[in-house]
Amino acid sequence: MTGFPFGVGMVHNGNLVNYHSLVEHLNKNLHQQMLTNNDLEVLLNLWCHSILSQRGSEHGPFHFEHCVNAAKAILDVANGAYAVVGLMAGAGLFGFRDPGGIRPLVLGRRERAGQPGVYDYCLTSETLALNFLDYTYVRDIAPGEVILITEKGEVHSQVVVDRKKKSHCMFEWVYFAGAESTIEQKSVYGTRLNLGRVLSKKAQASIDAKAIKPDFVCPVPDTSRTSAIALAESLNLPYREGLIKNRYIQRSFILDTQEKREKAVELKLSPVKSEIQGKNILLVDDSVVRGTTSKKIIELLKRHGANEVTLAITCPPLRHACFYGIDFPADEQLIANGRTTDEIAEWVGANQVIYLDEDDLVEAIEVPELCMACINGKYPTCTAEAEEFQRRRSEHKK
């Protein structure tokens, strides 16, 4: 947020890969000194500089064209993923999305009480938020699009950078988004059902080969629950909640040290001993990042009497760093990097690990243009500054 040259508040979801070169550009060429390490400050300064240069002064007239030019100035130089929402004094509510559409952004509206035909508008990452606020979904903001809702309720929008190939983050459907949400008009809940059904083909092959003999399917709560239900139905196996989640513990994989992650797993999940004792469990999780959580959960299940644990993952192996806002910025931190599936199973203590294939993931999500760089290493943007990005981020976390 800034009050000069005019009041602007801005939030964003994503990450700028070329953050450091943009900071250098702002320092040397625009004489702007960054006060934080937050990449949103870079976006805010680029936006304000463009708007001010077009208006001539902080009191100059404002037009939607100023937003178009400011967004284009950012989209032309900002390399990474970003869905941005802001409020600007004297202008209104604005938002824009990176050209690849890596991070989602949606528009909603609701009729103003007592004023038929008059609407308030909302911009948010997920339709889930619209439901809570009693807004109606209007549409997804297109990749490379800027939108402005004026103080009078007028809606202006324009696609300023039209990149032919889109790159929607597959992890939104697999893990990040709320199950109630839709992204790119695809139900997250429905997609997770698809993930479980598609994964059942590989699980069934292991059962037929007598490699595993599960007594029931059990999810790692909460994200994988939907897929676990579909997997159990497809395999004609019972579904059981063998782990109960403590809802006051944050997601363990985003914590900054191994010790904290391991402690969080112990505090986060409580086993239902009566259900798991002496049983062969087909344990379902949405993904395996560092392997810490999976290892501790399997140890927990076996400590409370589980016989065998097979780990089924509704995502292919994560072998490459993500530079777009997911907290695994280094290849060597990922358990699947440099390990075979059998080696992963041995490391986490599972009887077997069953991963979804890349083609099966695309089939389940049913969105043709996906970013799967963390799986296949095919990054949708330039990663020339990625090594420096990794180094500085690691130093910042120490």
Structure, explained:
With 398 residues, the chain is an alpha/beta fold. It has 2 domains: 8-105 and 141-167, Glutamine Phosphoribosylpyrophosphate, subunit 1, domain 1; 175-379, Rossmann fold (3-Layer(aba) Sandwich), CATH 3.40.50. The chain contains 14 helices and 18 strands. It has helices at residues 19-29, 39-55, 64-77, 127-132, 171-176, 188-208, 225-235, 258-268, 273-276, 292-303, 341-348, 358-365, 373-376, 386-397, and strands spanning 8-16, 80-88, 92-97, 106-111, 119-124, 136-140, 145-150, 155-159, 168-169, 182-183, 186-187, 216-219, 243-245, 269-271, 280-285, 308-313, 352-355, 370-371. It has a 5-stranded antiparallel beta sheet, covered by helices on one side. A hairpin with a 2-residue loop joins strand 10 and strand 11. Helix 1 (19-29) packs across helix 2 and helix 2 (39-55) crosses helix 3 (64-77). The longest helix is centred in the middle third of the chain and has 21 residues, at 188-208. It is elongated and about 75 Å long.
